[in-house]
Specification:
This protein is 82% helix and 0% strand. The chain has 301 residues and is mainly alpha-helical. Helix 6 crosses helix 7 and helix 9 runs antiparallel to helix 10. It is flat.
C-alpha cells in the first residue's frame, strides 16, 4: 500500500507540474490572417516506419517538450551556471536533458528505496526518512559527478599546456603563422585541450575573430593559467610584440607553477600517511609481532 501511494503521488505531482508549466505557443497575428487565405493541396500522409514509429511519434516529441519545459522552469542565472558547468565538464548534453535525467532519477530511485523499506516492514517515519535521504543523495551525487568531471578535465588541460605551447613556440619561431602553429598542435596533441583548440580553430576558420574565439575557449575550460596565457597572447598581438617570446615566458611560468604544486603535494604526503599508518599498518604489525608472544603467555599460564 505505501508503494502504491508513493507512486501515485509522484505521477500526480509530475502531471500537475507539467500542466502548470504548459503554455501553447502564441500564433503570430499576421500568420493567423494569412492562414485563411492559403491553400494547401492535400497529399497522402506518409506512413511511419513500424520499427521507429513509437520513438518517432511519442518518445522524441515528449523528450523535446519535457526538455524545453525544464529549461523554461529554471531561473536564468541557475541555468547559465549549469550550462557553464556542463561545458567545463566536457559533457555534450544540454541543460534541459541534464535536468530531465536528474529529475527522472530523483523520481525513480526514492520510490525504489521506499519500496525496499516497505517490503522489509518499515512504516511511517522510516519510509519518509528513506525517501528524503535517497532524494538528497541523488541530487548530491549529480553535483559531485559534474564537479568531479570539471576538476579532472581542468587537470588534464593544465598538464598538457607546457608541452603544447612549447610546440607552438617552436612552430612560430620556425616561421609558421599563429593559426598554422595552433593547427599543428591540434594534429600532434591529444586530450581535452586539443579538442577545445580544434573547436577554436574551426570558429576562426568560419570567420570569428581570433581574440573572441580564444577568450571563449578560456571560458569553456575554466583553467586560470590558460586564461592568463590567452590574455598575454591577445595583448602581444594587439601591441605588435613577438608572440613566440610571450608564449615562452608564459610557458615557463606554467612549468614553475606545476613544479611548485608537485613539491607542495610531496610535502603533504607524510602528513597524509599518518592516518593509514596509525589505523591500519601499525595494528597489523603489532598483531604479527606480538601475537605469538601473547599466545605463548596464555599457554604458559
Amino acid at each position: 500500500m505505501p508503494v502504491i501511494i508513493a507512486l501515485g503521488t509522484f505521477v500526480t505531482v509530475t502531471l500537475a507540474v507539467y500542466g502548470l508549466l504548459y503554455r501553447a505557443a502564441p500564433l503570430d497575428p499576421m500568420e493567423a490572417r494569412l492562414s485563411g487565405l492559403r491553400y494547401a493541396r492535400p497529399g497522402k500522409e506518409a506512413l511511419p516506419d513500424p520499427e521507429a514509429a513509437f520513438s518517432t511519434r511519442v518518445l522524441r516529441p515528449l523528450m523535446r517538450a519535457l526538455t524545453s519545459k525544464a529549461e523554461r522552469a529554471m531561473p536564468s542565472t541557475l541555468s547559465s551556471r549549469l550550462e557553464t558547468a556542463l561545458v567545463q565538464a566536457g559533457l555534450k548534453i544540454s541543460t534541459g536533458h541534464f535536468i530531465l535525467v536528474v529529475g527522472l532519477l530523483a523520481g525513480i530511485l526514492p520510490v525504489a528505496a521506499v519500496s525496499m523499506f516497505a517490503a522489509s516492514g518499515a512504516t511511517g517515519g522510516r519510509l519518509l526518512l528513506a525517501y528524503g535521504v535517497t532524494l538528497a543523495l541523488v541530487l548530491y551525487a549529480a553535483r559531485i559527478y559534474v564537479l568531479g568531471r570539471i576538476r579532472k578535465r581542468q587537470k588534464e588541460i593544465w598538464k598538457s599546456l607546457p608541452d603544447a605551447f612549447d610546440l607552438i613556440t617552436a612552430s612560430v619561431e620556425a616561421g609558421l603563422g599563429v593559426d598554422a602553429a595552433f593547427s599543428r598542435v591540434v594534429d600532434k596533441v591529444e586530450g581535452p585541450f586539443a579538442e577545445e583548440l580544434a573547436r577554436t580553430m574551426r570558429e576562426v576558420t568560419m570567420g570569428r575573430s581570433r581574440k573572441e574565439a580564444f577568450i571563449d575557449m578560456a571560458e569553456r575550460t575554466g583553467v586560470e593559467e590558460l586564461r592568463q596565457l590567452i590574455n598575454a597572447i591577445v595583448q602581444a598581438e594587439t601591441m605588435g610584440i613577438s608572440i613566440g617570446s610571450v608564449i615562452r615566458v608564459q610557458t615557463g611560468v606554467i612549468r614553475t607553477k606545476r613544479r611548485q604544486k608537485a613539491e607542495e603535494q610531496a610535502f603533504k604526503a607524510p602528513i597524509k600517511m599518518v592516518f593509514p599508518l596509525v589505523f591500519f599498518i601499525f595494528p597489523a604489525i603489532m598483531i604479527v609481532i606480538g601475537g605469538p608472544a601473547v599466545i605463548q603467555l596464555m599457554n604458559g599460564l
